Amino acid sequence: MIREGKQQGWLSLPVETLPVWAAFNAVTFDGVNIGPLPGKEDRGSTVIAKRSLKGGEEPPLMTIPRDLILSLARIHEHAKSDSDFHAVLDGLDEFGRTARGATLAFLLMQAFTACPHIQNKKGVSSPFTEYVKYLPMEMLPTFWSPAECELLTGTTLAPALTAKLNSLNREFERLRDATSRLPWCAEQWWDEVDGILEFDDWLQVDAFYRSRALEYPGVGDCMVPCIDMANHSSGNSTAAIYEVDEEGNAVLILRDGKTVEQDGEITITYGDNKGACEMLFSYGFIEDEMKSARELFLDLSIPGDDPLGRAKSAVANCAPGFKIVDAGDGVIWDGAYIWLICVNEEDGLSFQIQQTVEGNRELIATWQDEPVHGFEGFRSILEQDPLWDVYHLRAVSILQERVASQLQDLYGSDDRVDAAHYGDGTEIRERAWDLVKRLRHLESELLEKAYSFYEDKKLQLMQSETVMRFLSGGDAEQDEDFS
After folding, report:
1. Taking every annotated instance into account, which residue ranges of this chain make up the domain SET (predicted)?
2. Handedness of CA 37, 43, 45, 47 (dihedral sign)
3. What CATH class is the domain 15-260?
4. Global pTM value
5. Residue-level pLDDT at 36
6. Distances (CA, A) of 165 to 142, 162, 391, 436
7. How many angstroms separate the CA atoms of 431 and 423, rounded?
């Protein structure tokens, strides 16, 4: 893309020249600068205090004009004056009307417009034409080598990464199909010999958006130049907050009572409650201070011998899995899909075909002859049932079995990971190896904690009068195995 040759990577501008771009685009800095921390140049650029700063007594550290907030509305406004980009956006149809689709297409088009060796330029330049050159090449797991990805076996990041790469491939092919009908795209982007666009370019704009998009009040997901250079720190370590002022400009403000000495780092939070897997997936790092994986997501599947399996899959309107969250002295979990798995026809679940007012036919679920309108709230319905403790015990048993399976996969691949080497002559870099080892350790600890929690919960539920009566045949003839 912005390259002198296909294999030479995107061109970049030195961050030392960013103040020139900022001044030209009416971005103001007050008491801060952007660059590497003194003595920690290997960490890349961040926001640095030029003098001692005290929260509650400082004006905004940065002010970015509202026209530079890269939101969905701003992108569509740009498309009105850029017919080439407008044609690309139109070709993407529904995807181009989402914040993600529009932003990725916009960044890609700006990078193409900035390409130094394109003779027949397309697209209208904007402040982002130059700003994309300041964005660092994000080395998220989507850029990892096959050997590095192999180290993730047994972690919750492994399936998430596979699914993401498949999704990115589909998006890239959608972009190709949508724009190949435009003559200039067919020639300059997709020509087999001279075409400039590659899958890595789509990976890069995805990385820009995924690692730098912020959720602004009243704006939604967007990218904000300069503020997106700030690094992450959670909890009390977060130095500054970002918001929108009365005029709609984006501002960076030091938190009340927070003091940052000269040459100190001005951090923001990317999300205090995000787990280790999500931090590595979206931002390419795990906080040094993180002592727990915090949360993880495990997939679930309906057993193949479930007589209602196909019907359940057809009506399920919830994620096929559950989330485990570290709660300090225990764990909490959330996931509606489990309740769909642990009840069946003999309990009161049934399905029927119903004709809609439009004349279409649809499959609906009923519980105890009452329609079930979505399974997100199915737990609250089951809690009112006299056999709730039985359903609860089934769910806990299924969840514990799934946790045990994940632990087996994780521990079963430990030897392979321990035998891997990084450095010269290998596809594994030291940083990737360190991150994987950390993720594996944090997730194994949380999984072990969840397994013990479910074991205690099972023992507790087994003492329930409802469960004991059910197992003895007092309520139904069931052959349950909760071991």
Report:
1. 30-271
2. negative
3. alpha beta
4. 0.90
5. 86
6. 7, 5, 37, 18
7. 10
